[in-house]
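INFO worker-7 received task bundle
INFO bundle size: 2
INFO processing item 0
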Amino acid sequence: MGVPVVALYGSLNAIFNVILAVRVSGARRRGKKSIGTDGNEVVLLANRVHGNNAEYVPLAIVMLLVVELAGGSSNVLHAMGGALLLARFAHAFGLPRPAPNPYRVMGMVGTWLVILGASGYAIYLR
């Protein structure tokens, strides 16, 4: 049994995470900060954008995988996977901008809703 929907969104989110990691490396190189941030705001922001993505995406992908393995609708999975990717883009775009920032909020809330929605759907399918 394959998992084509999760394979798609897992792969797209993995590529996005590597892009964010490359941005951290670039900020570190430009700021001459090998470890830590030492008060460098650019390095801190790049690090947090990547870190936040790395913290939330794995749980969301695992929950999408659980749903797909439990026989969830591919249409629902595509909606959730697409929403997750858009939410992560919005969060990455919004985090470095001053508050109040609707992109950051949309990204944060969108990510949480995907995790909660997939969790609820998995319980329902069970």
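INFO item 0 finished
INFO processing item 1
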Amino acid sequence: MHPNRNLTILSVAFPLLPVTSGSGGGAEQILSLVERGLVEAGYRSIVVAAKGSEIAGTLIETPAATSEITEDIRVDAQQKHAQAIEQALSVTKVDLIHFHGLDFCSYKPADKVPKLATLHLPCQWYPASIFNNGGVQINCVSQTQANAAPRTGLPVIPNGIDTSRYWSSTSARQYLLWLGRICPEKGVHIALRVARRLNLPMVIAGPVHPFRDHEMYFDREIRPLLDAERRYFGPVDLNTKVKLLSEAMCLLIPSLVAETSSLVAMEAIASGTPVVAFRSGALPEIVEHGRTGYIVDSEDEMAGAIAKISALSPEGSRLRASERFDAKRMINDYIHLYADVIGAFSSKHHG
């Protein structure tokens, strides 16, 4: 089925966390990019997302987190999301709902409308029932993630970034960088240990979301490793992130979980900044060993690889990013997948 530009797409974010171009979470960043691309291509876009979201189309607001996210707050947010979706469906003919949240089953409407869910996290984090053709088409964001899915044949749309936003500094690069959501599975403490071991300056940037285990991790594991040379910048907006990436010596990604993708690795490569990453999930799909960075298997190897980053070409990295990661390809792929999902739904229900 060919794309039809007279469509209305309802995108649904994870509850409680705002969607902006500078969001710390990959799901929010991809929703922001795809949604903006839809509007630029002439589609009608509606988004259900937390207050404070910056949307190109029409935003239906639900509450944003203002304190620690408890189970009661989470359940209440899911109910408000469900109500917002019902509100949108009651006043607008929606052609497809695109879910981006881990918990989409909690607010999936019963309405007979085509549904797509992008899995931004490891497959085992989702209820097994979503893989049993439960009325929602699923897509993965990397081949590694699809290979780990309990069902074969899921469509794969690799993530992308707006490569035009990133630039490479010509001045001396003087610090290591870690950038992302600060939580135990991202291995921030490992990056800090490496920086202290090599006696190199380091910048840690990104949000500590109001989940109890994330806040405890920061207080117990991260704060004691900070000093005058290893600093925490807090959450950063897009412009600050671009500047940090452009001026970093290299980006460290010591992830302890199977990453489904890595937008920050793509952003670093687009900035001409080498990436030294653990062999976790899809990271070897993104970081070309010996070309745009190094894939390592331990903290010791990470420390050793930093000594070799001067051999990599910033210009070569930027070229590879524009060839492989540009968001226009991703947006176009989603538009074609929307058409396929709508076509399959129509055949099933009206054929």
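INFO item 1 finished
INFO post-check item 1: The two ends are 15 Å apart (CA to CA).
INFO post-check item 1: Residues 327-350 form the longest helix (24 residues).
INFO worker-7 idle
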